[in-house]
Amino acid sequence: MKNTNKPVWLVMAPVAFTLLWAGGYGIAKVGLQYAEPMTLLSLRFSSVVILLIPFYLFFKPAFPKRLNNWLHLVVVGVLVQAVYFGFCWWAFKTGVSAGVLAIFMSLQPILIAILAPKLAQENVSWMRWLGLLLGLTGVLIVIIARSDIEPPTLVGVGFSIMGLLGITSGVLYEKRFGGGYHPIVTNIVQYAAGFAVVAPIAITFETMEIQWSGKFFAALGYLVIGNSILAMSLLLAMIRAGEVARVSSLMFLVPPLAALFGWFLLGEEMPPVAWAGMAVAALGVSIAARNKTRR
Questions:
Q1: Which residue, among 288, 258, 233, has the nearest Cα to 116 in the 3D structure?
Q2: Which of these, 82, 88, 267, 285, has the minimum number of CB atoms within 10 Å of its CB?
């Protein structure tokens, strides 16, 4: 008989991850008021690695011993850290709001559901498809409702799509090839890989000037500790502990929270019809999250 008891951390992880991840949209946009995208990402990634080194020296978790395992960690780091965050933050600079970008990212479960049977060795049931499609309907309602206030530019849409493909590819790759290493090891390798990609871009194409202020330090602290270390560790742990489609369906809960953060931090508006669309998306994620995946 299958043991259905889950550890407490795994029960609370979806709520904690969703809040931390959603807050990162608005707070990243605050940080980008004081630094350029790749410059801020370089500072973020290097800060994470530096902060984790003392923990590595204390706990001494094992690093991969085989070259291909190192490569798997690096690939996920590049896809999630460099591609996903890089294009998302470029989208912010083109004027895409925190709520709208979160809406684009919530399309990830649809891609996961399409690709998961082949790449993640999971079969998605028809009830989960119903939940995912209902969530997509809510996403479209929000995009249409908010287009009158702030229609996203073509460049912003393109950057958002590239970021979506980055996080989707990273999640599927982690599910298929993830080695289950200690979170400290995983984060050090992946953020170092992300830094190796974005730092040369910042040096080549940006001024790398930073307007140091209390708000900037607060935003950077949240991005490093809350969004990078805590949220990413929870995401990887949930992927390894459960089905990839179930974990990815949490992304439907991020847009309304991101919109709230965007309104509170940046004054970004969200019309009533858009909130109705987010309610439809939330219903979709509820259906998708409760229905079990068949293997």
A1: 288
A2: 267
CB 176 within 8 A of CB 120: yes
- Token duo for residue 235: 């995401």
C-alpha 109/C-alpha 104 separation (Å) is 11
**From the CB of residue 57, how many other CB atoms can be counted at a distance below 10 Å?**
8
DSSP-assigned beta bridge partners for residue 168 = none
3-state helix, strand, coil in the chain (%, to 5): 80, 0, 20
**Of 201, 1, 175, whose CA–CA distance to 83 is shortest?**
201
Q: In whole angstroms, give the CA distance from residue 39 to residue 288.
A: 38
The answer to whether the beta carbons of residues 59 and 184 sit under 8 Å apart is: yes
Whole-angstrom Cα distance, residue 64 to residue 60? 13
pLDDT tens track for 102-148: 888 877 877 777 776 766 556 667 777 787 788 778 878 877 887 77
Query: Which one-letter amino acid corresponds to residue 178?
Result: G
Reading the block at residue 253, the tokens are 């809960």
pLDDT at 292 over 60: no
Boundaries of every domain in the chain? 11-290
User: Given the structure tokens 């079969």, which residue do they identify?
Assistant: 123
Q: For residue range 90-105, what is the model confidence (pLDDT) as tens digits?
A: 999 998 888 888 888 8
In the block, residue with structure tokens 């900037």: 216
Q: Is the dihedral of CA 210, 27, 16, 198 positive or negative?
A: negative
Q: Are 115 and 169 in contact (CB under 8 A)?
A: no
**Whole-angstrom distance, CA of residue 159 vs CA of residue 89:** 9
pTM of the model: 0.83
